[in-house]
Amino acid sequence: MNCKISSLHFSPIKSLSFQTIKSCLVKKNVGIEDDRVYAFSRNLNSDEAILIEKDPNKRELINFLTLKNSPFLNRYNFNLDNENIAIIKDGNEIISIPKNDREALSKKLLELEPKIPKPIYLLKNHLYPFFDTTHSEKTSNTISLINLNSIKDFEFKINKTIEFERFRGNIYVKNLEAWTERSWIGKIIKINNVELQVSSHIPRCSATNLKINSEISDINLPIQLKKTYGHMDMGIYLIPLQDGQLSIGDNIELV
Questions:
Q1: Minimum mean pLDDT among 88-92, 186-190, 248-252: which range?
Q2: Residue 106: which residues within 8 A CB-CB, separation 6 or more?
Q3: pLDDT at 141
Q4: Beta-strand pair 76-80/84-89
């Protein structure tokens, strides 16, 4: 199997960011370093926000600002470096704030988008990041893998371009026949000597309906997947079984 990593990405802030990287560190049973370690709370007081920050079992998706409940936030991106979190809009940096000053970042986002219901709090948890699957009984911390040829097959069948960024995956792969990844469920793959358990398919939600960097919805993507393939999945979840490093160009093999 001549399957390789085409691109790597992580989301510093749950649902609201998509950052491209050349390589990344992977932590056993945690995921990609810094992926979704931050999240903005929604409709919670300070005590409730602290509770879900610390305890993943108390989290529900409705507790967080996401593109599903706040599609206007798709116009922004949030980039993380060693010291700061920058707010980006239309490719331009609006402000860069020290990542430890979470209150300032929350205030700035409310200033930019006053229609966001107050209060919001920027939460942080490195041990239990804010993955959709963190509180799932079947899956915990995960890495997402998406086959670019599966997206291309979908595009061909519906006669519409679907940008890969809509899916906010961590690992995109090339040189793999469309939908082959669906046969990997329950198996182990190896990337650069890092073993990863393939745990489940990734069902898609309405956030994928949005055009890139826009709050405009131009397709009901989950329903279109269902009509085309009989499921609403795109991609697979991986659980890292050991620490290691992944890089663009790394080979992927079944164990």
A1: 88-92
A2: 40, 119, 120, 121, 122
A3: 77
A4: antiparallel
Residue 63: CB partners within 8 Å, gap ≥ 6? 41, 42, 43, 44, 48, 52
E strands in the chain: 3-10, 19-21, 23-27, 31-32, 38-40, 76-80, 84-89, 92-98, 122-124, 143-147, 171-174, 188-191, 194-203, 233-240, 244-247, 251-254
Residue type, 69: N
Domain positions in the chain are 1-255
Could you tell me which residues come within 8 angstroms of residue 115 by beta carbon, excluding any fewer than 6 positions away? 72
Longest dimension (CA), the chain: 51
Q: Tell me the mean pLDDT in the region 163-170.
A: 95
Contacts of 22 (CB under 8 A, 6+ apart): 8, 247, 248
Of 241, 243, 12, whose CA–CA distance to 126 is shortest?
Answer: 12
For domain 1-255, give the CATH number: 2.40.33.20
pLDDT, one tens digit per residue, over 90-137 is: 889 999 999 999 999 999 999 999 999 999 999 999 989 998 765 444
